[in-house]
Design a protein that fits this description.
Helices cover 45% and strands 24% of the residues. The protein is α/β, with parallel strands linked by helices. A hairpin with a 2-residue loop joins strand 4 and strand 5. The chain is globular.
Length: 289
Protein backbone atom coordinates (compact mmCIF):
# COMPACT_ATOMS: atom_id res chain seq x y z
CA UNK A 1 0.00 0.00 0.00
CA UNK A 2 2.79 2.39 0.95
CA UNK A 3 4.56 1.66 -2.35
CA UNK A 4 1.38 2.57 -4.22
CA UNK A 5 1.12 5.87 -2.34
CA UNK A 6 4.77 6.70 -3.05
CA UNK A 7 4.24 5.86 -6.71
CA UNK A 8 1.23 8.15 -6.89
CA UNK A 9 3.17 10.93 -5.19
CA UNK A 10 6.03 10.55 -7.70
CA UNK A 11 3.57 10.55 -10.58
CA UNK A 12 1.96 13.72 -9.22
CA UNK A 13 5.35 15.38 -8.95
CA UNK A 14 6.24 14.42 -12.52
CA UNK A 15 2.92 15.78 -13.77
CA UNK A 16 3.55 19.01 -11.87
CA UNK A 17 7.02 19.33 -13.42
CA UNK A 18 5.55 18.70 -16.89
CA UNK A 19 2.93 21.39 -16.35
CA UNK A 20 5.60 23.86 -15.25
CA UNK A 21 7.64 23.00 -18.34
CA UNK A 22 4.60 23.52 -20.57
CA UNK A 23 3.89 26.87 -18.93
CA UNK A 24 7.53 27.87 -19.34
CA UNK A 25 7.50 26.92 -23.01
CA UNK A 26 4.24 28.82 -23.54
CA UNK A 27 5.70 31.93 -21.88
CA UNK A 28 8.84 31.68 -24.01
CA UNK A 29 6.80 31.29 -27.19
CA UNK A 30 4.68 34.30 -26.23
CA UNK A 31 7.76 36.45 -25.63
CA UNK A 32 9.41 35.30 -28.87
CA UNK A 33 6.29 36.16 -30.85
CA UNK A 34 6.23 39.70 -29.49
CA UNK A 35 8.24 42.44 -31.20
CA UNK A 36 11.61 43.22 -29.66
CA UNK A 37 10.83 46.93 -29.85
CA UNK A 38 7.42 48.56 -30.00
CA UNK A 39 6.50 52.24 -30.21
CA UNK A 40 2.86 52.56 -29.22
CA UNK A 41 1.27 55.95 -29.99
CA UNK A 42 4.50 57.71 -29.03
CA UNK A 43 4.67 61.49 -29.28
CA UNK A 44 7.57 63.83 -28.65
CA UNK A 45 7.21 67.59 -28.45
CA UNK A 46 9.43 70.53 -27.63
CA UNK A 47 6.97 73.17 -26.56
CA UNK A 48 4.63 73.67 -29.51
CA UNK A 49 6.99 71.87 -31.92
CA UNK A 50 5.90 68.28 -32.59
CA UNK A 51 8.93 66.16 -33.48
CA UNK A 52 7.15 62.79 -33.49
CA UNK A 53 3.39 62.43 -33.78
CA UNK A 54 1.69 59.21 -32.61
CA UNK A 55 4.47 56.90 -33.79
CA UNK A 56 3.45 53.25 -34.06
CA UNK A 57 6.30 50.96 -35.05
CA UNK A 58 7.03 47.29 -34.31
CA UNK A 59 10.50 45.86 -34.81
CA UNK A 60 10.76 42.08 -34.78
CA UNK A 61 13.47 40.10 -33.02
CA UNK A 62 16.67 40.06 -35.05
CA UNK A 63 15.14 42.39 -37.63
CA UNK A 64 17.40 44.99 -39.24
CA UNK A 65 15.59 48.27 -39.85
CA UNK A 66 17.07 51.36 -41.51
CA UNK A 67 15.50 54.78 -40.95
CA UNK A 68 15.93 57.38 -43.69
CA UNK A 69 14.51 60.82 -44.30
CA UNK A 70 15.32 64.53 -44.45
CA UNK A 71 16.86 66.46 -41.56
CA UNK A 72 14.35 67.32 -38.86
CA UNK A 73 12.02 64.43 -39.65
CA UNK A 74 12.46 62.80 -36.22
CA UNK A 75 14.88 59.99 -37.16
CA UNK A 76 17.50 60.48 -34.45
CA UNK A 77 14.81 61.27 -31.87
CA UNK A 78 13.52 57.70 -32.29
CA UNK A 79 16.89 56.32 -31.19
CA UNK A 80 17.36 58.87 -28.42
CA UNK A 81 13.98 57.96 -26.94
CA UNK A 82 14.94 54.29 -26.96
CA UNK A 83 18.10 55.14 -25.02
CA UNK A 84 15.97 57.31 -22.68
CA UNK A 85 18.07 60.33 -23.65
CA UNK A 86 14.77 62.00 -24.51
CA UNK A 87 11.58 61.67 -22.50
CA UNK A 88 8.41 60.95 -24.44
CA UNK A 89 5.29 63.06 -24.00
CA UNK A 90 2.71 60.42 -24.85
CA UNK A 91 2.46 56.71 -25.51
CA UNK A 92 4.58 53.77 -24.39
CA UNK A 93 7.83 52.25 -25.66
CA UNK A 94 8.24 48.50 -25.15
CA UNK A 95 11.49 46.52 -25.23
CA UNK A 96 11.69 42.72 -25.13
CA UNK A 97 8.08 42.36 -24.05
CA UNK A 98 8.11 44.86 -21.18
CA UNK A 99 7.56 48.62 -20.99
CA UNK A 100 10.65 50.81 -21.08
CA UNK A 101 9.10 54.20 -20.45
CA UNK A 102 6.55 52.93 -17.94
CA UNK A 103 6.27 50.31 -15.23
CA UNK A 104 3.44 48.46 -13.56
CA UNK A 105 2.48 49.61 -10.08
CA UNK A 106 -0.64 48.56 -8.18
CA UNK A 107 -2.11 47.15 -11.37
CA UNK A 108 -1.58 50.35 -13.34
CA UNK A 109 1.01 51.69 -15.78
CA UNK A 110 2.92 54.64 -14.37
CA UNK A 111 5.99 56.54 -15.64
CA UNK A 112 9.14 54.50 -15.03
CA UNK A 113 11.53 55.42 -12.25
CA UNK A 114 15.30 55.57 -12.79
CA UNK A 115 15.88 52.04 -11.51
CA UNK A 116 13.41 50.58 -14.00
CA UNK A 117 14.81 52.70 -16.84
CA UNK A 118 18.37 51.53 -16.15
CA UNK A 119 17.36 47.87 -16.03
CA UNK A 120 15.40 47.81 -19.30
CA UNK A 121 17.81 50.21 -21.03
CA UNK A 122 20.55 47.69 -20.28
CA UNK A 123 19.16 45.59 -23.15
CA UNK A 124 20.05 48.34 -25.62
CA UNK A 125 23.41 49.47 -27.00
CA UNK A 126 23.94 52.62 -29.04
CA UNK A 127 26.74 53.85 -31.29
CA UNK A 128 26.76 57.59 -31.81
CA UNK A 129 27.88 59.75 -34.70
CA UNK A 130 30.86 61.20 -32.84
CA UNK A 131 32.34 58.12 -31.11
CA UNK A 132 32.25 59.56 -27.53
CA UNK A 133 35.27 57.52 -26.44
CA UNK A 134 37.06 58.39 -23.20
CA UNK A 135 40.24 60.12 -24.42
CA UNK A 136 42.31 59.14 -21.37
CA UNK A 137 41.58 55.41 -21.80
CA UNK A 138 42.99 52.92 -24.28
CA UNK A 139 40.71 51.09 -26.71
CA UNK A 140 40.66 48.12 -24.33
CA UNK A 141 39.93 50.26 -21.28
CA UNK A 142 37.06 51.98 -23.11
CA UNK A 143 35.43 48.56 -23.53
CA UNK A 144 36.13 47.32 -20.00
CA UNK A 145 34.93 49.86 -17.46
CA UNK A 146 31.16 49.73 -18.03
CA UNK A 147 30.88 45.91 -17.92
CA UNK A 148 32.77 45.94 -14.61
CA UNK A 149 30.75 48.73 -12.99
CA UNK A 150 27.32 47.95 -14.48
CA UNK A 151 27.30 44.21 -15.21
CA UNK A 152 29.52 43.27 -12.28
CA UNK A 153 32.07 41.37 -14.37
CA UNK A 154 35.51 40.72 -12.94
CA UNK A 155 38.30 42.71 -14.54
CA UNK A 156 39.78 39.59 -16.05
CA UNK A 157 36.46 38.52 -17.55
CA UNK A 158 35.77 42.03 -18.86
CA UNK A 159 39.23 42.33 -20.42
CA UNK A 160 38.92 38.93 -22.09
CA UNK A 161 35.52 39.91 -23.51
CA UNK A 162 36.82 43.30 -24.65
CA UNK A 163 39.83 41.74 -26.38
CA UNK A 164 37.54 39.33 -28.25
CA UNK A 165 35.29 42.16 -29.40
CA UNK A 166 38.20 44.33 -30.53
CA UNK A 167 39.46 41.36 -32.50
CA UNK A 168 36.01 40.94 -34.03
CA UNK A 169 36.05 44.56 -35.28
CA UNK A 170 39.59 44.13 -36.60
CA UNK A 171 41.44 46.09 -33.93
CA UNK A 172 43.27 43.45 -31.89
CA UNK A 173 46.56 45.24 -32.65
CA UNK A 174 45.17 48.58 -31.43
CA UNK A 175 43.82 47.58 -28.03
CA UNK A 176 46.51 49.52 -26.13
CA UNK A 177 46.20 52.63 -28.32
CA UNK A 178 44.51 55.80 -27.08
CA UNK A 179 41.77 57.44 -29.18
CA UNK A 180 44.14 60.18 -30.34
CA UNK A 181 46.26 57.46 -31.95
CA UNK A 182 43.33 56.04 -33.94
CA UNK A 183 41.69 57.07 -37.20
CA UNK A 184 38.02 58.05 -37.26
CA UNK A 185 37.02 54.63 -38.61
CA UNK A 186 39.03 52.88 -35.91
CA UNK A 187 37.43 55.04 -33.20
CA UNK A 188 33.99 54.15 -34.48
CA UNK A 189 34.86 50.44 -34.47
CA UNK A 190 36.02 50.76 -30.85
CA UNK A 191 32.67 52.42 -30.09
CA UNK A 192 30.86 49.44 -31.64
CA UNK A 193 32.94 47.01 -29.56
CA UNK A 194 32.24 49.06 -26.43
CA UNK A 195 28.49 48.92 -27.03
CA UNK A 196 28.62 45.15 -27.63
CA UNK A 197 30.57 44.64 -24.42
CA UNK A 198 27.35 45.40 -22.52
CA UNK A 199 25.69 42.35 -24.13
CA UNK A 200 22.71 44.19 -25.61
CA UNK A 201 19.79 42.58 -27.40
CA UNK A 202 19.15 45.73 -29.46
CA UNK A 203 21.80 47.81 -31.23
CA UNK A 204 21.18 51.38 -32.36
CA UNK A 205 23.35 53.20 -34.90
CA UNK A 206 22.93 56.95 -35.31
CA UNK A 207 24.50 58.06 -38.61
CA UNK A 208 27.70 56.36 -37.55
CA UNK A 209 29.51 57.09 -40.83
CA UNK A 210 28.55 60.75 -41.32
CA UNK A 211 31.57 62.09 -39.41
CA UNK A 212 34.05 59.87 -41.29
CA UNK A 213 36.17 60.56 -44.32
CA UNK A 214 34.70 58.75 -47.35
CA UNK A 215 37.54 56.21 -47.51
CA UNK A 216 36.86 55.15 -43.90
CA UNK A 217 33.12 54.57 -44.30
CA UNK A 218 33.53 51.08 -45.75
CA UNK A 219 35.45 49.64 -42.81
CA UNK A 220 32.70 50.63 -40.37
CA UNK A 221 29.89 49.38 -42.61
CA UNK A 222 31.72 46.06 -42.98
CA UNK A 223 31.68 45.63 -39.20
CA UNK A 224 27.95 46.34 -39.12
CA UNK A 225 27.41 43.81 -41.90
CA UNK A 226 29.31 41.25 -39.84
CA UNK A 227 27.15 41.95 -36.79
CA UNK A 228 24.02 41.50 -38.86
CA UNK A 229 25.04 38.13 -40.25
CA UNK A 230 26.87 36.56 -37.30
CA UNK A 231 24.98 37.77 -34.23
CA UNK A 232 21.39 37.55 -32.99
CA UNK A 233 20.79 41.26 -32.66
CA UNK A 234 17.86 43.50 -33.40
CA UNK A 235 19.36 46.47 -35.22
CA UNK A 236 17.92 49.92 -35.82
CA UNK A 237 20.00 52.29 -37.92
CA UNK A 238 19.58 55.92 -38.95
CA UNK A 239 21.64 56.42 -42.08
CA UNK A 240 22.23 58.50 -45.20
CA UNK A 241 23.97 55.56 -46.87
CA UNK A 242 21.19 54.58 -49.25
CA UNK A 243 23.09 51.79 -50.98
CA UNK A 244 23.92 50.21 -47.62
CA UNK A 245 20.32 50.54 -46.40
CA UNK A 246 19.10 48.80 -49.56
CA UNK A 247 21.61 45.97 -49.24
CA UNK A 248 21.63 45.47 -45.46
CA UNK A 249 18.17 46.05 -44.07
CA UNK A 250 15.10 43.86 -43.84
CA UNK A 251 12.91 46.96 -43.84
CA UNK A 252 13.35 50.65 -44.57
CA UNK A 253 11.25 53.37 -42.90
CA UNK A 254 11.05 56.80 -44.54
CA UNK A 255 10.32 59.50 -41.97
CA UNK A 256 8.82 62.85 -42.89
CA UNK A 257 7.23 65.46 -40.66
CA UNK A 258 7.46 63.35 -37.52
CA UNK A 259 5.68 60.37 -39.06
CA UNK A 260 6.50 57.25 -41.05
CA UNK A 261 5.43 58.38 -44.51
CA UNK A 262 6.32 55.03 -46.07
CA UNK A 263 7.93 51.74 -45.11
CA UNK A 264 8.60 48.40 -46.68
CA UNK A 265 11.24 45.97 -47.97
CA UNK A 266 14.24 47.85 -49.41
CA UNK A 267 13.68 46.62 -52.97
CA UNK A 268 10.14 47.93 -52.91
CA UNK A 269 10.83 51.24 -51.20
CA UNK A 270 13.86 52.12 -53.31
CA UNK A 271 12.57 50.54 -56.52
CA UNK A 272 8.94 51.64 -56.48
CA UNK A 273 8.24 54.24 -53.76
CA UNK A 274 4.56 55.02 -53.38
CA UNK A 275 4.69 58.33 -51.50
CA UNK A 276 5.52 61.48 -53.46
CA UNK A 277 7.76 62.79 -50.67
CA UNK A 278 9.72 59.52 -50.68
CA UNK A 279 10.28 59.86 -54.42
CA UNK A 280 11.45 63.46 -54.01
CA UNK A 281 13.85 62.55 -51.23
CA UNK A 282 15.40 59.59 -53.04
CA UNK A 283 15.74 61.59 -56.24
CA UNK A 284 17.51 64.42 -54.39
CA UNK A 285 19.85 61.99 -52.58
CA UNK A 286 20.78 60.18 -55.78
CA UNK A 287 21.42 63.44 -57.65
CA UNK A 288 23.72 64.64 -54.85
CA UNK A 289 25.96 61.60 -55.15
Amino acid sequence: MSETIVGLENLTKRCSVLEELKLGIARTEKVMSEPMVRFENVAKRYGTLSVLDELNLDIARNEKVCIIGPSGSGKTTVLRMLMTLERINEGVIWVDGEPLTHMRKNGQMVPANERHLRRVRGKIGMVFQHFNLFPHMTALQNCVEAPISVLGLSRQEAETRAAELLDMVGLSDKKNHFPIQLSGGQKQRVAIARALAMRPKVMLFDEVTSALDPELVGEVLNVIRKLGTEHDLTMLMVTHQMAFAKEFSDRVCFFYGGKIAEQGPPDQLFGDPQHERTRQFLSAVLEAR
